[in-house]
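Re: Re: token formats

Sure, here are both.
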Amino acid sequence: MKSYQMYIGGAFVNAASGKTREVVNPATEQAFAVVPEAGAEDVDAAVKAARKAFSTWSKTTALERSRLLMRLSGKILENAAMLAELEILNNGKAKREAQGDVDDAAACFEFYAGLATKVHGETMLTPANAVSYVVREPLGVCGQIVPWNLPILMATWKLAPALAAGNCVVLKPSELTPLTALELAKLIHEVGFPAGVVNIVTGDGKTAGEAIVTHPDVDKVAFTGGTVTGSRIMELASKQLKRVTLELGGKSPAIFFNDCNMDLAIDWGLFATFAGTGQVCSAGTRLLVQEGIYDEFMQRYLAKIRDIKVGSGLEDDVTMGPLVSKHHREKVEGYISLGKEEGATLAYGGDRPAHLKTGYFLNPTVFTNVTPQMRIVREEIFGPVAAVMKFSTEEEAVALANDTHYGLAAGIFTQDITRAHRVIRELRAGVTWINYYHPTYNEMPWGGYKQSGTGRELGLYGIEAYLETKQININLDTAPVGWY
């Protein structure tokens, strides 16, 4: 049982209360690490450390910040094997998914290392005898709360742009998956970030999370997670008019037209739903299949789904790991039971793999004969559960795709280039794909419409979210104004 400490003010510390929490491996159901359980007192110490550091960190040159971020990227790559294994043990990810997340985290820090020196203002000669110009300045202290499904990657998406822009940070990983964030703290310390610039506290959302959101000295809150929690954060933050970025839930459609490349569509269709054991906010869990190919699609889809190997992510050939916790597996199983009660047809899965006696495993699950008003179609399950619907026309497909409170992601599969462009413009979603699904790029914005959140992360939009805009005006006329 390995013990970890939080990172506050450049030091590794225990919770002021002495409380701890055990961290469980979802593949074995066994605790294997212990972390501090932060309270409001610990959050206050972290915020104070960040505020103190901000006075000097915000004045460092962009080049200094860039070099530190680049060194951190290199350290992540040096420790990639360790970090990937820890993601597997803590989250349950399949090995190649964990390795991909660690590589992407390093690339994200590298991207923002380059972008740190590219923050520009603007200047104009005003009609009056004056010069007006705009500068971009860091916001201040940023509270960041990240989820359990992509622990190191979601931490990176928030840390990298905030630090590149010159902010100081108090970051809280999920209480279920805090370990790679704490290992990242060690690398941050090692490369030489000044004390207090990055602070990482571990604890639950109700206590530590709300303490971050409501702290009067936190200038911005960035959160990735469920829509209900996001709404609560917005409510709390509104009392002090804090800046808020929210990346929330989804119930995303993947549309398969009659003319799609069937081999490609089946392959990406499975990946859309079952990557990350379906615990991905952008997962394509509503599959809309045009009636002309429906029978062939389902036959081949249900045959190919058998190639998904469920097991411990430490095994090289496993392609789907366990769900993150016992509680979450029970939630997903509850939706499977609900789908049966609603009258949907369970076409595949719905049970636990017989050969896996321990662990929070669940077979990939597919429902057919669903209707748009069923809860398994409308609500985010956040697990390996697909709901397949048939459609006849392009207009019907668009209507079904947009019939949701969410709007994070969507994908379409067609070989008709005009249809691809026509349909993608009709879909009310922030991230879309044509003839594939899920790949994300550090250079491009990420975020959703409707109840899938507000604001954008990554790309130029990511650093914009951590900058203030200041207008400065200079009078070039030395004569008195003569107003009075």
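Second one below.
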Amino acid sequence: MKELTLKVEGMKCSGCENRIQNALQNLKEIKKVKANYETGLVHIILKKELTDELKEEIMTTIKRMDFEIIE
């Protein structure tokens, strides 16, 4: 099992957490997502190894909801 944690700016409430969690959970390679607006972290557990393509898909999904990923 592979994991990824991203720092996401713009989450202001539990509704933001839910939007990110629901959107990412719809990606077939993702097993579990936990977003926390207080820390700004999104922790993702993957079903397979992280590839550049999968990371890009995750980041694009988050950015489409008008959140910014801090690297």
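Residues 9 and 41 are 9 Å apart (CA to CA). Residues 2-70 form a domain with the Alpha-Beta Plaits fold (CATH 3.30.70.100).
- S.
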